[in-house]
Specification:
This protein has 116 residues and is of the alpha+beta class. The chain has one domain: Aminopeptidase (3-Layer(aba) Sandwich). It is 38% helix and 24% strand. The protein has three helices and four strands. Strands 1-2-3-4 form a four-stranded antiparallel beta sheet, sandwiched between helices. Helix 1 runs antiparallel to helix 2. The radius of gyration is 14 Å and the shape is globular. The termini are far apart. The model has no long low-confidence stretch (mean pLDDT 94).
Length: 116
């Protein structure tokens, strides 16, 4: 499937915690306790909704989530944001999906008043 068939969404769904765990684990870059942190941020968003400090952009290929970003405004700042996570399934790498996720995340941050 080409990356132009990817659907980007920002609504976090109950199944996304397991998807994020699988995506981050597939990278081979993170320890299990770090993967747990990625999942905790999804769970925070699910439990707190818009009151959560964490924003997500998820990339779906059909019924499979294949990449995501997690970002949020830095506390005690105006217009400053952190990119906490960006990850793409191992079998979706080198197709430009990470670049697309990053560009769209930056666009959304700018639209929310974020500065470079």
């Amino acid at each position: 499937m080409a990356t132009d068939a990817i659907v980007l969404r920002d609504d976090v769904r109950p199944g996304d915690a397991a998807a994020v765990r699988a995506i981050v684990r597939s990278s081979g870059f993170f320890h299990e306790h770090e993967i747990d942190v990625a999942v905790e941020l999804v769970e925070d968003r699910l439990s707190r909704g818009p009151a959560s400090d964490y924003r997500f952009l998820l990339a779906d290929a059909g019924d499979r989530t294949v990449g995501y970003t997690c970002y949020g405004e830095i506390a005690c700042t105006v217009g400053s944001y952190d990119l906490y996570w960006i990850a793409v399934y191992e079998d979706w790498r080198r197709r430009g999906l990470g670049r697309r996720l990053l560009a769209e995340t930056e666009r959304r941050i700018a639209a929310a008043g974020g500065r470079r």
